[in-house]
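Much of our argument rests on the idea that a fold can be written as discrete symbols. Part of our work consisted of pairing the sequence of a single chain with a tokenised description of its backbone. We regard such an encoding as a compact summary of how the chain folds. The amino acid sequence and the backbone structure tokens for this protein are reproduced below.
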Amino acid sequence: MEKIYIASDHAGFRLKEQLIAYFRKAKINYEDVGPFKYVPADDYPDYTFELAGKVNRAKTKGILICRNGIGVCIAANKVKGIRAVSTTSPAIAKTARADDDTNVLCLGQDFISLALAKKVITAWRQTKFSGGMRHRRRLAKIKKFEAQK
């Protein structure tokens, strides 16, 4: 069973805790990367970079949560090998996996309900990368660019 890493900052902490409760009930294999308590002064890059490293090493997926889902997405996409998407749409989550082989899903606690977050996560987790020629070609260009840094 594939493990999902999950992390947030203070502004995503409530949704992260709700999703962890859902993961337990649904028997989804996960690891909480933090924070483990609400800390109003924490910074999302700290948790983002830790989660991204784990996702890269384990060749698996991760979920990041902040207030709007954008800050963690920007930070995650700075990490070599990470392809993060921020969305509130199950349809976009599906195409982000099928076309772009995303490995990190970013959510904004202030812009998504728990019910919708579950739908987005389910769509994203259940969709496999299509492996289509044009998608592989595009991802290869990204990988080549990352190698030049």
Q: What stands out?
A: The radius of gyration is 15 Å. The domain at 4-148 is CATH 3.40.1400.10 (Ribose 5-phosphate Isomerase B; Chain: A,). The CA atoms of residues 77 and 84 lie 6 Å apart.
